[in-house]
Each structure stands twice: as structure tokens, then as C-alpha cells.
Amino acid sequence: MKALVVLPTWNERETLPSAVEGILRQPGEFRVLVVDDASPDGTGAAADALAREHAGRVEVLHRARKEGLGRAYAAGFERALGSGADLVFQMDADLSHDPGALPSLRAPLERGEADLVLGSRYVPGGGTAGWGMGRRLLSRWGSFYARTWLRLRVRDLTGGFKGWRREALEAADPGAAAARGYAFQVETTLRALRAGARVVEVPILFSERAAGRSKMTLSVALEAAWRVPLLAVAPPAVRPLAAGREARA
């Protein structure tokens, strides 16, 4: 199955080469799509150099301006589906997500056991490294907050390390998601569940970013705080996944 990893970037020049090389080393012929929102630090140029070095396996989508994580992912997903990818993965380019975990996310998808696989910090075997107590408590509270409002059993709703079967991604329709910041992760998982996707969590170790600054801002946090209750009150409408899944079975 053709597998493509979408990497959104904003000022990730220092870590992008290691992230891309790590992905390309994994078994299964992963391809990489870097989605750069005109990073002022030269990330786009570094991505172009990687695309030249790994022609056919690395591609770059340059966007004119920064519009938020959600819009970057939506653009990347559209390109990934248009390229014929069977499996689409999403992860951070700052090395907080270990490329070595990609095969464990891929396996349930290829075995037909899941339509969406979440790399989870909050199932047995998962965890975080390099965080202080305050950061750990805030992250756990964020997942608990979203899980409680939306009445879902998913333990790690706010994580961004995911693997999708194309049918689930199409049904979730991330381009229609309203969230622009980290709430996009919650909304897309909710959309997949409402479409009937089988969601599985596999444990990962999330590490503090290797370089640069966190993209979490007050406005991003506030969006998540008000958008989650809104999703609970007015859940997104999606098309059922069953027909597409049966067609591929």
C-alpha cells in the first residue's frame, strides 16, 4: 500500500532534515510531503534541497502564508489523496514524534484492523519525555476535557501523530473542519468516529521538541477551549465510511 507522511512546517529548518531522513529509513517505502507555510527561517529552501536529494520520495507544497496548523494539514491531505496514497500519516517535523514509531501505526491499517490509528501518549506503554509536571498536567487535562465534552473513549484526543486509511480521511473531510489550531486534531478524530471509522490507539513516547519554539499560543489554547464544547453541541455532519470500506475489502 502506498504510504505518505504529511509534515507541516513553520520554522523547522534545524530539525526537518533529521525528521525526513528518519522517515525514509523506515521499512515500507514511506514518501514525505512537506507543507511549508512560507517559513521565514529558510525551512522551505531546506525542504526543496531534500526533495532534490530524494527525488520521487520527498515533495514540497509551498503555501503563501501561515494560516494555522489545520489549514496546512488540510492542504497536505488534499495533495496526498490526489497523489494516490492508500495510507496517509501526519506527524510533527520537530522530532517530538519518533519516525521509528511509523511501522507500529501502519500495521493495524494494513491488517485491516483500523481506519485511523492514533499514536497515543495515554495508553499503557505510552508517555512523554522532557516535560515538566505543569506541561504534563496541562496536556492530560486537555485530553480529559475533550474526551468528557465529546463523550469519547479515546485517551489521547489532542495528539497529532496519526495514520489514516484513505477512505477514512476522505470521509472525515478535514478540509471542512472549522478548527485552525490544535483543536483540529480533536475535530478530525471526532469526524472520523462519526463517519464510522474504527479508531485504534498505539503507544508512543512523545519527546520535547529538539529545537525551536513551541507553536502553542494563548489564541490556540483559547480556540481549543471554546471549540470543543461547540463540537459537542453541534457535531459535524460527515458521510458514512462503510460503503468505501466495503469497496476496498
3D architecture notes:
- The chain has 249 residues and is an alpha/beta fold.
- The chain has a single domain, classed as Spore Coat Polysaccharide Biosynthesis Protein SpsA, Chain A.
- It contains 9 helices and 9 strands.
- The strands form 2 sheets. Strands 3-2-1-4-7-5-8 form a 7-stranded mixed sheet, sandwiched between helices. Strands 6-9 form a two-stranded parallel sheet.
- Strand 2 (30-36), helix 2 (43-53) and strand 3 form a beta-alpha-beta unit.
- The chain is globular and about 45 Å long.
- The model has no long low-confidence stretch (mean pLDDT 91).
Query: What count of domains describes the coordinates?
Result: 1
Give the N-terminus to C-terminus distance in angstroms: 13 Å
Backbone structural class: alpha/beta
- Sheet-strand content, in percent, reads 15-25%
Number of strands: 9
CATH superfamily: Spore Coat Polysaccharide Biosynthesis Protein SpsA, Chain A
Q: What is the subunit organization of this protein?
A: single chain
Q: Mean pLDDT, as a whole number?
A: 91
Number of helices: 9
Largest sheet: 7 strands, mixed
> Helix coverage percent of residues?
40-55%
Poorly predicted residue ranges = none
User: What's the shape?
Assistant: globular
Spatial order of strands in the largest sheet: 3-2-1-4-7-5-8
| CATH level-3 fold name | Spore Coat Polysaccharide Biosynthesis Protein SpsA, Chain A
Query: Any idea what the radius of gyration is?
Result: 17 Å
CATH architecture assignment: Alpha-Beta Complex
Write the H/E string, N to C: EHEHEHEHEEHEHHEEHH
CATH C-level class is Alpha Beta
